[in-house]
Amino acid sequence: xxxxxxxxxxxxxxxxxPLSKGFxxxxxxxxxxxxxxxxxxxxxxxxxxxGTEAAVTARETALSGATAKLFATPPSTLPWQPFVxxxxxxxxxxxxxxxxxxxxxxKADNSVSILRRRFEPTVLAPGRLAFSWKVDALPLAADLxxxxxxxxxxxxxxxxxxxxxxxxxxxxxxxxxxxLLTGEELPxxxxxxxxxNKEAPGTVVVNPRTDRIRKLVLDxxxxxxxxxxxxxxxxxxxxxxxxxxxxGPLRVVALxxxxxxxxxxxxxxxxxxxxxxxxxxx
Length: 282
What we know:
CATH class: Mainly Beta
Shape: globular
Largest sheet: 7 strands, mixed
CATH architecture: Sandwich
Structural class: alpha+beta
Helix content: 10-25%
Order of helices and strands: HHHEEEEEEEHEEEEHEE
CATH superfamily: Galactose-binding domain-like
Number of domains: 1
Distance between the termini: 24 Å
Strand content: 25-35%
């Protein structure tokens, strides 16, 4: 399957409907549902995506090679793939070297860029997660707790399975809408590591539209701009801190840089990422 998929008219129609203003667009924006990315209109993608078919193929090949070298995760039948949102400008992840340090770069500009890997089979007990990121600026006036300003220059997104009988009726309705559009339900819970503008490191921010998405702030403010930030996290401990319960199997991991709500421009870099499985695969 190509990184950039063919049009899906029903999904595009959904994203222009009033319902898309709610949590469903947030969940899909995180790239946590569906195997194929819904299509975007020509004017919605960044200039980075323009070019001949040969150029697009070359970029896809370069990105595939870079993810194979940079990212070490439990095995999956699915590769790392970009996820493009209807109505949102997408800027590609570019393989680069920063002072001989291999990384993926995103030149964000009023855009949403997602690169994800779905796990088939799921990761039964995610353990140690190590990753690095760097940014040169923060989204203007971003606020992780505000629905209309919740941009972050870098995110690591983890989507988990769980007991959906504990969901509210609203969550069940949204998950059913997702299933109809994509063939897959929403994750039971989503934990996101973020760089915030003002929130103190260690803060857990509950998504304003649903408490099944929670953000854990690792870096904050401008004092570390331009510097690589290396993090090693205990995924299960962080999930317990954020949600107050034990995590289920891990379904997806994603990188996400978004500046669309604040219409900001910045450059973000993602370095090597390693995710360990503390239990055998199914």
